Amino acid sequence: MDIIRNFPLFSIVLSLFSGVLCMLLKKKTALIYTCIYEGILICMAAAVLWYTWHTGGSFTYTMGEFPAPWGNEIRAGILEALLALCFLIILLCSVLAGWLFLGMDVNPNKINLYFSLINLLTAAMMAMLWTNDIFSGYVFLEIMTLTSCGLIIIREGGRTTLAAVRYMLLNLVGSGLFLLSVILLYDITGHLLMMNMQAAISELAQDPSAFTVLIITAGIMTIGLGIKSGLFPFYFWMPDTYGWATPTSASILSSLVSKCYIFLLLKIYVRVFGLEVFSRMPVGNLLFVLGICGMFFGSVEALRATNINRMVAYSSAAQIGYIYMGIGIGGTAGLTAAVFHILMHAFTKSLLFLTIPFLALASGSSLRFRDLQGSALRDRRAGIFFTVGAFSMIGIPVFAGFSSKLLFAEAAVESGSYKKLILTMLILAVSSLLNALYFIRTQIRIYSAGESDPFGRHRQKAADPMVILPSLVLAFGNLFLGLFSRVAVALILQGLSHFG
Q1: Within-domain flag for 421
Q2: Which of 13, 217, 240, 439 has the maximum number of C-beta atoms within 10 A of its C-beta?
């Protein structure tokens, strides 16, 4: 079973190799190869999850058997394996469900390059989940930024190019701030491995002057990754980025890329600064406030949207606020709620972004609400899958969103802070009400037949298994998190116990 300890590294290397290989393949061959190799990565991640759960802890893999500071290090535990498994499943479902629109939106001669970008992004995603070296995290963070821009701009449109340029510029600012914080940490501690940095920081934190520098460094890092992940007030790039990308790209960017940035930040809080030191910093309270603002203003913007893609994009900004609010609440309960919401949002938002194009296809390829009248009656499969995602976002019992909001409420109670408890309960109620307003409004619209049916000719005639099966998997993931949330919470708790 020791060969399983090599799987995290294998997943990174295989993804890098696949990114180069797909440049040489034809478009259909690139699709088939990508699906097969993603399936292999899913099996690897499942094996690592089983191994870490069976052994009851985490393990480190020293690359080339060279110890620090010369060598690099991978650390795998239950939490990393769980996220890797879920993210890979979502990525594979996004590729399969969005294949139809990929042929419409992307030049046929560039489809193999599109899969090359996806595979390189997978390598970056795996590296950011597994790495225990902060500079390696920065390197693959940049790879993820470049490949994400490629996934947007490959659609080749004026608005798409503008969205990609805006996304690139903001992400470069975030990357620059993150690199600056890495340089400061290296200058202070003399280490790049996260656990070695934590040992040095725990001593430095005893000195008030050094602790001030640590606060500034954590603040710079938080702003950098906050820009890249869409933390309030930096979420304004989301509507155009998600709205003008091809459905597969929108699904991957919204459900996976932003979550990788957040997970890297969470890993640094826990493994580099340590929860004890981090709890003494004002950064946590700042994240709590910004998370609440994101939940409110993102929902208000979603309510004002006249385009369904922009509505769901602004909803993503609100959901990112939930995650940062959980980190700001702090403690094991707050981090558990944040990680659970990462999983919930990843499954749900990918399902929504992959379903919306079929509602539009049944409505003359229009994303405007007034044209979507009765679209769920014309494509009932898309209507059902959209309803699952919408009910989860609102927080209807049985769906994952309800369990997630319940975890945030429990975390606020356990925080011991009356201010955080009152604010959390208030914003959960307000945000849920706003979610209900814009999602139920959409449900009424897509299930209400008008006096005439100008788009009746767009009614779907046949079920495509390539679309239905991935959507079923995503819907099942959502329902599993809702009905069996305690299973996921138990894994997250066990993973957090070995995460630091």
Answers
A1: yes
A2: 439
